[in-house]
Amino acid sequence: MTGQQHRAHAHGTGPDADTRWLAAAGALIVAFMAGEVVAGVVAHSLALLSDAAHMLTDAAAIALALAAAKIAARPPRGGYTYGLRRTEILSAQANGITLVLLALWLGYEAVRRLLAPQPVTGAVMLVVALVGVCVNVAASALIARAAGPGARRSLNVEGAHAHVLTDLYAFAATAVAAIVVLTTGFDRADPIATLAVVALMLRTGGGLIRASGRIFLEAAPAGLDPAALGAAMAARPHVAEVHDLHVWEITSGMPAASAHVLVAPRQDCHAVRADLEALLAREYGITHLTLQVDHVRDGAAARPAASRAAPGDPDTNGRPPAGQELSEHCEDAHGPRYRPGDTGGFVGKGRATGKSRE
Q1: What is the CA radius of gyration of the chain?
Q2: Taking the CA of residue 339 as centre, how many other CA atoms within 13 Å lie in the half-sphere pointing to its CB?
Q3: How far is CA 253 from the centre of its chain?
């Protein structure tokens, strides 16, 4: 018996980011970036050019987010049973990789200028940096408005917002470097500011790569412990065992789960399934849920973990080895088994542990 919950989930277009605000933020960034490139060349400032390069990745991130949002909104068809929602994740990963590669190049150039400093025009640096702070504050506000309270969490929008905030900090560092150049004539302040920007770019790019990689590898959503989830499901009334538990994300902000649930004899499978669906939706935000629910045969109900015999050994009443009587439905179950009485750990191949498996 299987059941699938769809009360709060649909594969079609959801209340995603308002693309008009994203487009406005992108246009603002592109316009300022063009002026910053000119200013960086005139002032011989690597810090300004690195800021412009970072803003180029911001513009690319927003453009990819806009394209991915349109593609991901298409309804499922053909072999794409989940639709094309993971195009958002492809976009985020491509953006993160580009950001890291660009940071490595800028870091190399910054080290070269530290070893052989070049004169820079501090006044131009300062003016452009202060204008850049204002532009990034405005762009950040536009992106925040796009990802309003009713919008689904999107790794693309989060990445674009993080980029703009990183630019804001980078322009602040450039302004400080410009003040140092103007007051002391210390030209190495420019590549030092560039290295600060590089560090921020590596942090942001690495975060995007890690987050998108988790989704592609179908790991459990960050912050969700599958062992704790399995133990919580097994603790519900009339649940004898939970196994084949899988938790993943279809795309950012859209978790999904599936499991095989064994129910105590002569209990209502439908009521148990409805209770588990309500638990996962309420406590874990999982509304895309598929459960296979079966009864345990009479006399084979789960015993509390504390009363189980050692793995492979019959208990004192001559019953089958621990766990064997509940394995008849799945001879080759994937992952751990969770049963009533387990304290947040899992039982797998006859042993219990408190570690989480992804």
Answers
A1: 27
A2: 25
A3: 8
**Angle, to 10 degrees, between the axis of helix 19-43 and the axis of helix 46-72?**
160
Residue 145: its pLDDT value, please? 78
- Please state, in angstroms and rounded to a whole number, the distance separating the CA atoms of residues 75 and 80: 9
What's the Cα-to-Cα distance from 243 to each of 175, 230, 314, rounded to whole Å? 57, 8, 22
Q: Does residue 348 carry a pLDDT above 60?
A: no
3-class DSSP state for residue 68?
helix
Q: Which two tokens stand for residue 170?
A: 């980078």
Rounded to 5 degrees, what angle do the CA atoms 285, 287, 289 make? 120
Measured CA distances, 167 to 59, 123, 173 (Å) = 12, 20, 10
CA nearest to 59, candidates 100, 86, 28, 38:
28
For residue 30, pLDDT beyond 60: yes
Hey, what amino acid is at 153? R
The span from the CA of 160 to the CA of 53, in Å, is: 14
Above 60 in pLDDT, residue 23? yes
Phi first, then psi: what are they for 295, rounded to 5°? -85, 145
Residue 318 confidence class, pLDDT cut points 50, 70, 90: very low
Average pLDDT, the chain: 77
pLDDT of 328: 53
pTM here is 0.70
Distance separating alpha carbons of residues 14 and 344, to the nearest angstrom: 34
- What CA dihedral angle connects 323, 327, 331 and 336, to 10 degrees? -60
For CA atoms 50, 51, 52, 54, give the dihedral sign. positive
* Predicted local distance difference test score (pLDDT) of residue 144: 78
